[in-house]
Every structure is written in C-alpha cells, then in structure tokens.
Automatic annotation (TrEMBL):
<dbReference type="InterPro" id="IPR004681">
    <property type="entry name" value="TRAP_DctM"/>
</dbReference>
<comment type="subunit">
    <text>The complex comprises the extracytoplasmic solute receptor protein and the two transmembrane proteins.</text>
</comment>
<comment type="similarity">
    <text>Belongs to the TRAP transporter large permease family.</text>
</comment>
<feature type="transmembrane region" description="Helical">
    <location>
        <begin position="304"/>
        <end position="325"/>
    </location>
</feature>
<feature type="transmembrane region" description="Helical">
    <location>
        <begin position="91"/>
        <end position="121"/>
    </location>
</feature>
<feature type="transmembrane region" description="Helical">
    <location>
        <begin position="261"/>
        <end position="284"/>
    </location>
</feature>
<feature type="transmembrane region" description="Helical">
    <location>
        <begin position="133"/>
        <end position="157"/>
    </location>
</feature>
<feature type="transmembrane region" description="Helical">
    <location>
        <begin position="238"/>
        <end position="254"/>
    </location>
</feature>
<feature type="domain" description="TRAP C4-dicarboxylate transport system permease DctM subunit">
    <location>
        <begin position="7"/>
        <end position="413"/>
    </location>
</feature>
<keyword id="KW-0997">Cell inner membrane</keyword>
<dbReference type="Pfam" id="PF06808">
    <property type="entry name" value="DctM"/>
</dbReference>
<feature type="transmembrane region" description="Helical">
    <location>
        <begin position="52"/>
        <end position="71"/>
    </location>
</feature>
<keyword id="KW-0812">Transmembrane</keyword>
<feature type="transmembrane region" description="Helical">
    <location>
        <begin position="212"/>
        <end position="232"/>
    </location>
</feature>
<keyword id="KW-0472">Membrane</keyword>
<keyword id="KW-1133">Transmembrane helix</keyword>
<comment type="function">
    <text>Part of the tripartite ATP-independent periplasmic (TRAP) transport system.</text>
</comment>
C-alpha cells in the first residue's frame, strides 16, 4: 500500500499539482481505503504545526520583507561595493558579499535572490558584465541564505528531526563562509578569464560613508545571531527581536508607513499560510509512513546492504539531491526526515552533521530546474530564460557539489564550532 501512496505523491508532483494536494490526497485515500476515520486527518495536521519553534518562520520572513522595503539591501550593496568593488570583476564579489550579509537577516534563498538580485543584476548589466554571469553569481550566492544563520530551512529541519536549532545555526557558519569564499574564487577565475572590468578606485572615504549609512543594518545579524549564541534568547524569540529591530530601522530611516507595513504583513501571512498548509499536511503523511513501518523496513534494508555509516549518509544525501530536482526543500524535509531518523540512530550518524548537510543539499535543489524557487526568482529579475540562467550557474553548482563532498569527508567543518562553543 505504501508503495502506491508514494507513487501517487510523485506522480501528482510531476503533474505540477499544488504541493498540499500532492501530499494530502494520497494520505486521505489511504485513510479511506484502510477504514480509518477521516477525523484523524485534522488532528494530525494541527498537531504538526503546534510547535512554538515554527513561530520563528513568519517572523524571519517578515523581517526580510521589511528589510527590502526600508532600503536595507541598497545600503548593504553600496557598502560591499565600496569595500571590494574596485577589484577586477568586483561586482561579482559584491554580489557574494551582499548576499552573505543579507543572508544573516532573511534566512530565505528566495528573498535573497529577489532582494539582492534586483540590485546586483541591474548594476552588473550597466557595467558591461554578461547578463548570464550576473544572474549566475546572484543565484549561486542566494544559496548562502538557508545555510548562514538564521535559516528557515534549518528551523523546519530541527523541529522535524528534534535536533537543536541553535546548534544547527552555529554549525552552518563554517560551511556558509566556506561556500562564500569558494564562490568568490570562482568569480575571480571567470572574471580574469573573460576580462570583466574593474570598478572605481578604492576610497577610504567611500567605505566610511557607506559604512555609516549601513551601520544599523549591519548590526541586525549581530543582534539576532549574537543573542542566540549567547543564550540571551531562543531562536523563536530572536525572530521577534529581528522584526522589532527592523521596525526600529524603519523609524530611523523615515520609511515606516502604515500602508507598506500592512502590505508586508499581508504578503508574509500569505506566504506563511501556504507554507503551514504544506507542513500540516506532511504531518499526516508522516503518520501514514510510520504506521506502514517504512522507517523500520528502510533501516532493515539499509543494514543488510551496508554497515558503513559514511555510505549510508552519502546515500541519504544523494536521495535528497535527486528529490530536490522535483520538490521544494520543505516537503523533502517533512517527508524524508521521519523515515531516515531510525537510520541515523542505528548507524550512529551525528544528527547535527547530517542535518546541516541535508539542508545544504536542499539548498542545491533551490537553484536547479524544474522547481527551483531561487532559480525562478533570479530569472525573473534578470529577465533571462530559466535555461540560460541555469547553464550559466553550472560552475557555481559544481563548486557546491565539491564542497559538499569535502564536508562529508571532514565533519569538523560543521561540528567544530558547535562543540567549541558548547564546551565553553
């Protein structure tokens, strides 16, 4: 029976049915065929979203929207350009650095791709860069958002897998910085090979001026992430602090208006409503999967196949990578994590190490067709065909895969900082 349920989900996804329909319809069919009262469905759905940590999701999304509305992205871009824009291919570095800073405030690849991309792609076009390169570096940089804390994907994963979200946030710092440096290295290679222009000469006065302009914006990740790491507040409380601080920025910059604030609330509510419907429906799927003993069968099959924890981790990540071509990150996490949890325990796999890598692989799915959310966002702001943007992004895609292999082989890239901070 479970084979038919999973096949039905996959077929509905291939037919581009809404995700909540693709996940929910087969589960309801299962309840009906098994003679289980349909009243169980709303109970499981409500129980799934009855998690306080999920309150952080709408708050961080709202903070990101307000940041864009108050011109924070432009301030970040101007500061980054003043710091490293004078190098050959400087706007490519600026795109990476601006995305890295914005990532520490939004936690969303889609918000990063559209917010930062709207400015960087336009600026690079005007300076004579290949539009495909401009879109590619913007899309590659958008993958930093769900890795560098705070990360919405990590919040959902931590709530589903019962892994400390604070530890996952800390564990994402090393990989995020490594990804940013690697992308800058790729920008260097492509810029020199293609002869992209240099920016204006470096000026301390310009750095000082733009730094002052962006100072309060740059304090946002320090306030939010510093508060979490120091134990002053939890990730959920940090999300509320982020919104309050961004509203304060709106007052300082004189851009806090009722109409625009209301639009941000409505837009966030719409996005979160759709997300929570998917999350709630996935709870019913998780119950069906558990009732059919899929985790136990999967663990038994994997045990008979291999005794290597490393190979099991690689197989899990390959499965996530494959699913990422067809599904968004949230349904992958909500469907797969309950099934693989017994494997993680049985093989003694570090749940923190696997969790961060799981999220990174989900991020790769955001930049690949046919359902890459960030890919569609960058294609929209760059006004280029999706295929052209994807092919131009392949060098950065290759870098991400190489880094992923390195992080699988060297767990300390993920686990060192959490163990160091916890030890203290």
């Amino acid at each position: 029976m479970i084979v038919y349920i999973l096949a039905a989900i996959f077929v509905l996804l291939m037919l581009r049915a809404p995700i909540f329909v693709a996940l929910g319809a087969p589960a309801l069919a299962y309840l009906s065929l098994k003679g289980i009262p349909l009243g169980l469905a709303p109970q499981r759905m409500l129980g799934t979203v009855n998690e306080s940590i999920l309150l952080a999701v709408p708050m961080f999304l709202l903070a990101g929207r307000l940041m864009n509305m108050y011109g924070a992205t432009k301030r970040i871009f101007d500061f980054a350009q003043a710091v490293i824009g004078h190098i050959r291919g400087g706007l490519g570095y600026v795109a990476v650095l601006a995305s890295m800073i914005f990532s520490a405030m939004s936690g969303s690849a889609a918000a990063d791709a559209v917010g930062v991309g709207t400015i960087t792609v336009k600026a690079m076009r005007e300076r004579g860069y290949d539009p495909s390169f401009a879109a590619a570096v913007t899309l590659g940089s958008a993958t930093l958002a769900p890795v560098i804390p705070p990360s919405i994907i990590m919040i959902i994963y931590g709530a589903t897998a019962d892994v400390s979200i604070g530890k996952m946030f800390i564990g994402g710092i090393g990989p995020g910085l490594l990804m940013a440096l690697s992308m800058m290295a790729m920008v260097t290679f492509l810029s020199w090979r293609r002869g992209y222009p240099k920016g204006n000469a470096f000026s301390f006065a310009q750095v000082w001026r733009t730094g002052l302009s962006a100072a309060l914006v740059l304090l946002t990740p320090i306030v939010v992430i510093g508060g979490i790491f120091s134990g002053v507040f939890t990730p959920t409380e940090a999300s509320v602090v982020a919104v309050v601080y961004v509203i304060f920025l709106g007052l300082v910059y004189g851009k806090l208006q009722f109409v625009s604030f209301y639009r941000a609330l409505v837009g966030t509510g719409t996005a979160v409503g759709a997300l929570m419907v998917v999350v709630s429906v996935s709870g019913l799927d998780a119950w069906v999967i558990a009732r059919e003993q899929v985790p136990m069968l999967l663990a038994q099959t994997m045990t008979s196949f291999t005794s290597s924890p490393l190979l099991v981790m690689i197989l899990i990540l390959l499965l996530v990578l494959f699913l990422g071509f067809f599904m968004d990150a949230t349904p992958i996490i909500l469907m797969l994590v309950p099934a693989i949890s017994p494997l993680v325990s049985a093989y003694g796999i570090d749940p923190l190490h696997l969790g961060v890598l799981f999220c990174i692989v989900c991020v790769i799915g955001l930049i690949t067709p046919p359902v890459g959310v960030a890919l569609y966002g960058v294609a929209m702001v760059s006004r280029l065909p999706i295929e052209r943007v994807f092919w131009a992004t392949l060098p950065f895609f290759s870098v991400l895969l190489a880094l992923l292999a390195m992080m699988v082989a060297v767990p300390q890239i993920v686990t060192y900082l959490p163990s160091l901070l916890i030890a203290r």
